[in-house]
Each structure stands twice: as structure tokens, then as C-alpha cells.
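Morning!

This is the sequence you dropped in the shared folder:
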Amino acid sequence: MLDNLIIEINKSKQTILYVSHHRGFINQTASHVYEITRKTSRKFQGDYNQYHSVKQLEFQSHKNAYDKQQKEIKALEESIARVNEWHSTAKATTSVRDPKQQKRLSKLAKKAKVKNAQLTHKLNEKQFESPDK
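The structure's back. C-alpha cells below.
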């Protein structure tokens, strides 16, 4: 029965839209695969195996970008923590009357402010959502 349906679909010159969970059937009959999600719909050239390969590549690419972004954010946060620690240590040991120490303290405060601005900028850039899988 299924074999007859596959033969008829493949012989047909008409466009046939169908929904199926049978991968073998899709692979034998489909020339395009449409993916419909809550946000978008997309058209893929080829059978289910080709669609699946493209989706796997997209997922891996997205996951790599997300992981890279998270590493950059973590490195910035660690850098900020380190600079803030230096600043608080220097502030605690700095004499009010020593201009060199006051200047050094001022530089550390500026450095901490710059690092915080970098992190804020990084967080405001396009964020990659965590991969679903």
C-alpha cells in the first residue's frame, strides 16, 4: 500500500503537500521540506536526511557561538572582579596624604569603570539564546 502511494507521488507532476513522521516515506518522495515553528517557517531543498543535516549544522554553529559568548562574558566578569579587588585593596591601604597612591587609586577606579562598561556593552550586544537540545 505504501509502495503504491510512493510510486503515485513520484509520478505526479502536481505539487503535493503532506505531513508525515515516516522518515523513509519523506526521503523517498520529498523534493522540499518545510519546517514550521512558532516564530517562522522555512523551506529546505531536498529530502529529510538533507534537512536533518542542515539543521544539525545550524544547531552546532549556534551552540559554538553561544559557548564562545558565554566564555567572553565570564572572562570579562572575572577581569572586573580582579580589578575591583585591586581597587578595594589599594583603597584600604592608600594614605590620604600620599599623592602617588591617590593617583594609582584613581587609575584603578577608571580601569574598573572601563571594564564594567565593556561588560555592559557585551551584554547589550545580540545575545545568543541557549541551544534547545
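Headline: The longest strand covers residues 32-36.

More detail when I'm at my desk.
O.
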